[in-house]
Amino acid sequence: MIAKVGIFGAIVGGLYFLFNFFSGGSISEPTTAADADPSAYAGEAHFLPGKISGSQVYNYQDFDLSYNEKYEQADWVAYILTRENLDKPWGERVDNFRPDPAIRTGSATPSDYQGSGYDRGHLVPAADMAFDAVAMDETFLMSNISPQSRNFNQGIWRELEELTRDWAKKFKRLYIVSGPVLSEAPKGYIGKGNQVAIPVAYFKVILDIDEPEQKGIAFLLNNEVNYEPLYKFAVSIDEVEELTGINFFEDFMPEALENQMESSFNIDLWPMSKSKYDLRVEKWNK
Known about the structure:
Blueprint: H1 19-22, E1 56-59, E2 64-68, E3 73-82, H2 83-86, E4 118-122, H3 133-138, E5 145-149, H4 150-171, E6 173-180, E7 188-190, E8 196-198, E9 201-208, E10 215-222, E11 234-235, H5 237-244, H6 255-263, H7 274-284
Antiparallel strand pairs: 1-2, 2-3, 3-6, 4-5, 6-9, 7-8, 9-10, 10-11
Helix pairs in contact: 4-7
């Protein structure tokens, strides 16, 4: 898939309360945006994407996900990434990959990935949750894992994850939705106990609604090694919605404002890193 760079401009209003999201409370049953002042956000309790038929939304301490039993992985994961949390001391990473007992239909297991040649790729990066031991540990639940090509997971996907943390530090707070592209036929399946689909591509949708520059952007990346600059894979949020069938931020803000925020982007507002690109090409992709 080929990303097209567009021009973005958006004007948005304020927002309120973090309690529902960061307390781990359920936010999967929002009211409609019509209940809010049409000039303002409906509130962070409305942040989650639209529901997907046949999938179930699960709430964790600091992120949420929609689990798709057919493909044995999440349709999407959603969370808020903040400068405040990233500036906290990082806990020690423990690779505690394990089945997710919360998944009612049963999640994939670590053994499904053994001998497959694919990495257990995080959708919510462990480093994004390193500020809290419980939050980071939950990223190793297999509901948050998807089969990724090794040089993709450790290459361009890693570069995007690291850049997203840089952007969160720069812009204070970002709304993140990531996931596999399950609307296209999988590359194949892995697993003895479960049939875990191998996605052809992945997306990451990023929204910045804090002053002074309010903006959105998305990325579509094929599940394979890549030597091209990351900016070439930037797309509008609308393009990801069209490809995946997922409606992002549907109750987060009034429809006219949502359309404006999602229809275009400005790559110049999202600074890239030549040093990270060089690391990927010269080291991470090897």
